[in-house]
Amino acid sequence: MDTKRAEELKVLANEAFKGNKYNQAIDLYTQAIEINSQNGVYYANRAFAHTKLEEYGSAIQDATKAIEVDPKYSKAGCFSLGCKGVLPYFNSVSCILKALSIQGYYRRGAAYLAMGKFKDALKDFQQVKKICPNDPDATKKLKECEKAVMKLKFEEAIAVHGSEKCSVAESIDFHTIEVEPQYTGARIEGEVVTLDFVKKMLDDFKNQKSLHRRYAYQIVLQTREMLRALPSLVDVSIAEGKHFTVCGDVHGQFYDLLNIFELNGLPSEDNPYLFNGDFVDRGSFSLEVILTLFAFKCMSPSGIHLARGNHESKNMNKIYGFEGEVKSKLSEAFIELFAEVFCCLPLAHVLNGKVFIVHGGLFSVDGVKLSDIRKIDRFCEPPEEGLMCELLWSDPQPLPGRGPSKRGVGLSFGGDVTKRFLQENNLDLVVRSHEVKDEGYEIEHDGKLITVFSAPNYCDQMGNKGAYIRFEAPDMKPNIVTFSSVPHPDVKPMAYANNFLRMFS
């Protein structure tokens, strides 16, 4: 066993990690593991890299393996969780030995936490506390985890289910909300959202000014009515000589959204867009993004189409910032309203009967027809299995067949799965989003699947480009345009996220 070479690979992986090159780090840790599969630090470090790429299922597997391959680490001693020792690059052998005592449990607990599985996370952090009973940071993190679980139990206890639940939207009359004389921001005159209003609102947002809650209610409620009337799969027709633009995840990066409009024009009937889910969370201007997209939907219903992503859900919004941002910038009353409207978003679109567009990916079984997607009752929080879950969460894989999801939800599907789905539904191409790509896009599965991601320099650290795709009828060939990030005010990503999650990021 060439343990020296394995250690050299680990050092290279650590450097890649520090440079935010997480895929490269994972490849190097994997090579180290192939040489020495009994070194727990390689698995624990790779788990952290997977976490950075939001591959929480893979992170849980690696953290579990780190615990399994060398359980004696649990007797190695303790260290302060507040120090740099929790990172996968350590400065001394003694620091490694101390860190490994809890790193497997720590990394697995953090991954469970990121998935919203608070009860599973609690078990791992209880183990961390057991190993390090006198460590103040271990005590603090366990207490925060216990609080999260208690809050979850309370919410479950008071939740209203089924037919007893009333619509929040139907209890709101925005006409009765007074606009104070001192308000100088954008105003909607009457019932119609105009281009002049939207431009004024965008200027206000750009200058970090707020929209009055009366107009915010009006935009969200009018959008809800339009979305409710749509099927779960929307067919879009593009006339000959006309074009259509598809954008991927925006994730609260409002200033990059403005840049898309600078590059490609504002949404309109002559310049229609589809934003393919994950409008919110992570970025700290998610409210500005969603109100912008909804306002354009009100102004020009055929000029902008919106699809649901996995982050248009209560569970994700609670963890990754949107809920906290809405509460801070508007009011707590809007949180439930947005959750209700997100349940109205369609799940997929088909352009000219040829291009299938979905946020996540394809299915765990063959034979799924477009008619099956149309039949999905989408007016709910996303389930943890089934067609709706897979549409929102699945990812492509290079190998044929199907495999477990690296995210821990949905599945991974190969090129043969994509090919059969297209053939069975007389389609030419799958376009999906959901994954950060270095160039803003990636073409896979023999050219039959394109991933597009529209949040450049994701979370201010990934260094990736953004992209969007323009299709022109009748040939409907994808023309991919890439772009770089633009400056934004000094508000960090995840500024409104769950404090507990930020402790472990």
From TrEMBL:
It is found in: Cytoplasm. It comes from the Eukaryota. GO terms for molecular function: metal ion binding; protein serine/threonine phosphatase activity. It is an enzyme of class 3 (hydrolase). Keywords: Cytoplasm, Hydrolase, Manganese, Metal-binding, Protein phosphatase, Repeat, TPR repeat. One of its GO terms (cellular component) is cytoplasm. TPR repeats lie at residues 6-39, 40-73, 102-135. Residues 211-487 form the Serine/threonine specific protein phosphatases domain. InterPro entries: Calcineurin-like_PHP, Metallo-depent_PP-like, PP5_C, PPP_dom, PPP_phosphatase, Ser/Thr-sp_prot-phosphatase, TPR-like_helical_dom_sf, TPR_rpt. Belongs to the PPP phosphatase family. PP-5 (PP-T) subfamily. It catalyses: O-phospho-L-seryl-[protein] + H2O = L-seryl-[protein] + phosphate; O-phospho-L-threonyl-[protein] + H2O = L-threonyl-[protein] + phosphate. Its EC number is 3.1.3.16. This is Serine/threonine-protein phosphatase 5. Pfam families: Metallophos, PPP5, TPR_1, TPR_8.
